[in-house]
Amino acid sequence: MPVIVTDDNVQVRDATRVPRRTRRGDGRKLLILPLVTLLAITLWSYWPTVLDLLHEWQGNDNYSAGQIVPLVAVFLIWRERRAGWRARFTPCWPSGMALVVLAQVAHVYGLLFLRQAAERYALVLTILGLTLLIAGRQVFRRLFWILLFLFLMVPLPGVAHNLIAGPLQRLATTGSVVLLEAVGVSVGQQGNVVLLNERTPIAVAEACSGLRMLTAFVIVAAFIAYMVKRPRWQKAILLASSIPVAVVCNIVRIFVTALLMLHVSNEVGEKFFHDCAGLVMMPAAVLLLFGELWLMDKLITPESAARPGRADICVRSARRPARRASE
Predict the structure, then answer these.
(1) What pLDDT score was predicted for residue 153?
(2) What is the tens place of the pLDDT at every residue in 213-271?
(3) Cα separations (Å) of 132 from 33, 74, 107?
(4) Per-residue pLDDT tens for 78-101?
(5) How far is 300 from 285, CA to CA, in rounded Å?
(6) Rounded distance, CA 195 to CA 199, Å?
(7) Mean pLDDT, residues 107-134
(8) What CA–CA distance (Å, rounded) separates 163 from 159?
């Protein structure tokens, strides 16, 4: 390595040598061009799928909440930018290429057999594979849960939709009937039709099954679970509890609508159900989720608070004054 010798015989390193941090930063900057190129190619190849998702979000109220998932994912990635930038960028070719190939197989399968769900899930798998391929395992681990969050933007396949919507519709009808009987309303049930006082029918259609509320609550619960600093099992409970919370909120919505139709007018009840219920139920569901976190704080006592740990014992023994040798 060339050096510069001064009059004081002090060797100074050549100033042209690049520090390690600078070289690492330059290497990461060099990854931007291939990453942007691959993302552009992916967007071009999946452009019909992206347009199909946009039409689905705009035309199907059950999955309209999916359009906020990409925006939330971008925000979360921006929030984790410092931690991700400190990670080591080492492209992982075997695993990354395996995910990309799997995504392309699913894409071709969806194109050949007209399976829209396969094409949509292939888009998310391609994003996961490109992240692993370009950025490496460390960055992929840091962004793993955010990348999994992208699956929530994809509407359910037709088979899964039919398996979930029907039971939700019957559960919403039965639950509202139980609440109405509990407050003394004369009510009858014929399938998914609720008859109030033998003269006012309320049809709980498929659009009233609560699937729209369910998808929205799952997305909100996943966002809250990622943001809060809790153990993973508490986050899992929070995410799983969004399903019964959505069901309960939908039953309460039908119950309040029925009371308004009985005691005020049908117009007021329909206006509340279609216009105001969503604005009321979403804040109520968020409050229930935060109340669940508060309840877990009250019911669960950390072990460190119950008994001193090994670290506490060591600290206490270190603070104890040493005995003199004469003693």
Answers:
(1) 94
(2) 899 999 999 999 999 988 989 999 999 999 999 899 889 888 888 888 888 877 777 77
(3) 16, 17, 19
(4) 888 766 556 677 778 888 899 999
(5) 22
(6) 7
(7) 91
(8) 6
CB 194 within 8 A of CB 187: yes
The token pair that represents 98 in the structure block: 């395996």
Does 275 or 13 have the greater pLDDT score? 275
**Contact (Cβ atoms closer than 8 angstroms) between residue 185 and residue 258:** yes
* Four-CA torsion 147, 148, 151, 152, nearest 10 degrees: -100
Please list the alpha-helical segments (H only) found in the chain. Answer: 20-30, 32-45, 47-59, 69-79, 81-86, 93-113, 116-135, 137-142, 144-149, 158-182, 211-227, 232-263, 266-271, 277-299, 303-306, 310-319
Residue 223 CB partners (closer than 8 Å, separation 6+): 72, 149
25 has a pLDDT exceeding 60: no
Q: Give, in order, the Cα–Cα distances in Å from 125 to each of 102, 145, 220.
A: 8, 13, 22
- Strand 193-196 and strand 187-190: the pairing is antiparallel
- Residue 198: helix, strand or coil by DSSP? coil
**How many Cα atoms within 13 Å fall on the side-chain side of residue 122?**
25
Phi, then psi, of 196 in degrees rounded to 5 = -95, 125
Q: To 10 degrees, the CA torsion angle through 42, 47, 53, 59?
A: 170
Q: What is the pLDDT of residues 112-124, one digit of tens each?
A: 998 999 999 999 9
Enumerate residues 6+ apart whose C-beta is below 8 A from 48. Answer: none
Average pLDDT of the segment spanning 203-216 = 81
Structure tokens at 119: 């094409």
* Residue of 33, 37, 158, 131 lying closest to 77 (CA atoms): 131
How many alpha carbons fall within 13 Å on the CB side of residue 144?
A: 6
